[in-house]
Amino acid sequence: MSALVLSLLTAGFVYLIAGACSGKPEQVTVLASTSIAGSLKSLARSWQDSEPSVNGQCVAIEVQEKDSADVQQALSPDWDTKRNGNAPDVWIPESAAWARMAADREATARLIPDIQPSIARSSAVIAMPKVMAEAVGWPEKKLSWPDLIAMAKDPEGWASDGHPEWGDVRIGMSNPLKSTASLLALLAMIDANGDTDITQEELDAVVLLKNTMDTYEPDDATALMTKMGEADAAGGALAHLSAFPALERDVLMYNSRNPKEPLAAVYPSDGAPEADNPFLVIQNAPWVSAVKQDAATQFRDFVRDKEGREVLLADGFRDSNGNGGPSVSVDNGLSPQITEPPAETVQPAAVTNTLATWTALNRTTNLLFVMDTSDAMGAATTVDGEDTTLLEVAQDAVRIALNMIGSEKSQVGLWQFSGADAGGVPYQSLVPLERLDEGNRASISENIDFMQAGGPSALYDTAAAAYQHVTENYLAEATNMVVVLTAGANNNPNGGLSLEDLTTQLTGTRDPNRPVSLMTIGYGEGADETAMQEISTATKGQYFASKWPGEISKTLLNALFNAQ
Questions:
Q1: What is the pLDDT at residue 14?
Q2: Rounded distance, CA 483 to CA 398, Å?
Q3: Rg, C-alpha atoms of the chain
Q4: What is the pLDDT of residue 421?
């Protein structure tokens, strides 16, 4: 009898396990980057074999590959399934930097959880042909990105390291709006401490990078590795590129194909954010359910447990302690132990500012600077303990901003306004919209130097004329914008446009197929913020406040970087 009971109990126990859930499985969609999606698909199959459930409801995991940059752009409470496919219940970007960028949008921030555990890590490195890395002391000697930029600036090139046959030190870069490795490299240079305050020194570093780049891949995040492989197959790897941003796992995968010239991963001596593959269970979204969140959490715990760690280590990743599997070795171009300092956790605004800076440096811009030179700009002020005027501080800010416009196809012009001259025109065109070559830069700098404050402010009439001028001189495939910097309010002695007239005119002039943004900067305490907000809104532009004179340079750069 006892044997029969035991048999029935055992049979019942087996039956309960086999039938632990019922109904069509509730599907949990996991969007993961290509680099880790293969490992996660394998783990999802293993987890599915355990017949997972939530409160008796069967659940299933479907891992889909989607670039981190694409998810970052698309993620919102209004996820478009027709354009982007299934909405994510879980998002695993290559780096938390992508999540930080998404979190910098108010509506999207609510979707990003506070708990962001890493499931695998891959360091951001400088990828170099191994023989070149050895020539500069790898693996013992460390390099930073500024060190590498200095090498690229050296006119002797590789001759300085005893290899004139290699020619120049050639740096490659992928678009950081698409490439995790390039994004992390830029963060290390532009805002290494993640404090969102991009200093002049940091700006100078990225300008140097831009000016020393030999190759730039704007459209394909994997193009640098692909073209390096093609050059290697043709026997020209050393003449192709000397260094470029990569993730150490990318280096491992490249070397696994036995190239003629394998790569080495040089770990930046000043540290860099890691590609930490955070497991983000989406919250507060219309498609979220408690069942899916519970199932996602179960899968996360499985991935972070022993079997999951073993699979990810075998696939070339490191664990949360920085330990790699057997393939993470010097023989494969990697360092088994990372001794470089970890980078600071970046803030959402730091990522956004970094990308905005890079975008401004590399895009083509059609820009008209419009500077207030009325009485208000002559106000005395103090910056860094030195007596000056609002105009003098603004002049310095425009000079700095001018150096941040990098594309040779860009056009820049300069106006000033301070009431009406004898002919009744409330502004002066000092430098026409022309290609930003050495002559144009010199002309703008010279005219800035000769500006003097005095007279009333015909802000409204000037804004209308400037916007019309850029609209009529629209430059295709460029960011077209007017930047108006003023310390006062409209007080045109000749009357002129009212604020209502101006906004009506701007709205009527704006062509959504040929957009021009009017960016306004309110400088100092006397600026008419309400008016400038309305002016910018009429053109889909933005208003920026700079209450303190010392902030004007950063404020002006923000206006340039954030124009669409």
A1: 28
A2: 11
A3: 28
A4: 58
| Planar angle of CA 186, 182, 179, nearest 5 degrees | 135
pLDDT of residue 22: 78
Q: Which CATH class is domain 19-117+278-316?
A: alpha beta
Q: What is the pLDDT of residue 342?
A: 59
pLDDT at 337: 84
CA distances from 327 to 72, 138, 224 (A): 31, 19, 23
- Note whether 316 and 253 are within 8 A (CB): yes
- Every domain of the chain with CATH number 3.40.50.410 lies at 363-561
What pLDDT does 145 receive?
A: 86
Antiparallel, parallel or unpaired: β 171-174 and 213-217: parallel
Full 3-state SS string of 513-561: CCCCEEEEEEECCCCCHHHHHHHHHHCCCCEEEECCHHHHHHHHHHHHH
Closest by CA position to 85, among listed 109, 111, 108, 66: 66
Residue type, 397: A
Query: Which three-class secondary structure string do you get for 126-138?
Result: EEEEHHHHHHCCC
Alpha carbon 80 to its chain centroid, in Å, reads: 22
CA nearest neighbour of 554 among 102, 202, 175: 202
pTM of the complete model beyond 0.85: no
246 touches 222 (CB < 8 A): no
Q: Contact at 8 Å (CB) between 84 and 47?
A: no
Residue range(s) occupied by CATH 3.40.190.10 in the chain: 19-117+278-316, 124-266
Residue spans of the chain under pLDDT 50: 1-19, 422
Contact yes or no for 225/182 (Cβ under 8 A): no
The class level of CATH for 124-266 reads alpha beta
Q: What angle do CA 303, 308, 314 make, to 5 degrees?
A: 140
Q: What three-state secondary structure class fits 92?
A: strand
Token reading at 541: 């532009």
CATH of domain 363-561: 3.40.50.410
CA 316/CA 306 separation, integer angstroms: 16
> Torsions phi, psi of 185, nearest 5?
-65, -45
Cα gap 208→154, rounded to integer Å? 12
Is residue 415 within 8 A of residue 367, CB to CB? The reply is no
pLDDT value of residue 7: 35
The C-alpha atoms of residue 121 and residue 111 are separated, in whole angstroms, by 23
pLDDT at 2: 39
Hey, what are 245's tokens?
């941003």
Tokens of 277: 């593959």
Q: For 248-263, b where at least 16 C-beta lie within 10 A, e where not — what string?
A: bbbbbbbbeeebebbb
Separation of alpha carbons 462 and 466, rounded Å: 6
Do you find a cis peptide bond into 432, omega within 30 degrees of 0?
A: no
Alpha-carbon span 441 to 413, nearest angstrom: 10
For the CA atoms of 284, 290, 293, 297, what is the dihedral angle to 10 degrees? 130
